[in-house]
Write a structure and sequence with these properties.
This protein is mainly beta and about 170 residues long. Helix content is about 10%, strand content about 60%. The radius of gyration is 17 Å and the shape is globular. It starts with a helix and ends with a strand.
């Protein structure tokens, strides 16, 4: 039920943002909102991305949020980072570096007493190497990328992400 609620919320945010910004006729800089499956949010996330300068390529930032719960365990994640787009006419190679803040909670732990929960948090590093299709006039945004994850002696080089969203 919580997964379904989270998915409905993600779709709602995407629809609201597309309707709100669809009225803008002149697009000055690369901006977008998207839902990412896997990727820097680990399982999935809702993200905002923008270029620092008034252009569609170059240096920018991204930030997102996700929450998943299953059988008494939950994970909240907040990916953030810098990225750089190389290319033109809405077709870009994306490279980036960032981190993801994670917060875990587990009430299904067999060692817990009563309603106690095991809670932990941490930070993992992430990278982005991928393709982005973001029309210059705005509209449907697509991303496909390798998103290696590293931290605390762990390195997952072949992790990936797929994103669908709206550029405005």
């Amino acid at each position: 039920m919580k997964k379904l609620l989270g998915l409905k919320f993600a779709i709602f945010l995407l629809i609201i943002s597309t309707q709100t910004f669809a009225q803008e006729s002149t697009r000055e800089r690369g901006r977008g909102v998207f839902v990412e499956i896997l990727g820097n949010g680990l399982i999935g996330s809702i993200n905002y991305d923008q270029r620092f300068e008034k252009r569609f390529d170059g240096l920018g930032f991204k930030g997102g949020i996700s929450y998943f719960a299953f059988n008494g365990s939950s994970v909240a994640a907040a990916p953030f980072g810098l990225n750089y787009l190389l290319g033109k006419d809405g077709k870009y190679f994306e490279v980036g570096l960032g981190a993801t803040y994670l917060r875990f909670a587990d009430s299904s732990n067999t060692f817990s007493v009563g309603n106690e929960r095991t809670i932990g948090d941490g930070l993992v590093g992430n990278m982005i190497f991928g393709y982005r299709r973001e029309p210059v006039d705005g509209g449907f945004l697509f991303r496909a990328s390798m998103t290696p994850i590293f931290g605390s002696g762990t390195f997952l080089p072949f992790y990936f992400g797929l994103s669908l969203g709206y550029a405005f």
